[in-house]
Amino acid sequence: MAHIYIPYLRTADGTIKRVADAFFDSPDDRLGPFLHEEPLTGWPESKVVWAKKSGPTVGFALSGNSSPD
Hints:
This protein is mainly β. Helices cover 0% and strands 41% of the residues. The mean pLDDT is 85.
């Protein structure tokens, strides 16, 4: 199954931004250092995994558009 992830950014003040014009295509569920899961409210995706637990960082959220190969 293809896994399509949408990038998110978290700023120093905790603001979350979705990078709608980009995506990350992964052949498996391995996201390397992205270990810190957080639920998302008000976004198309339901949760995001961040590279850092707090502070400014980048994260990825599994898109609802992921589909079989």
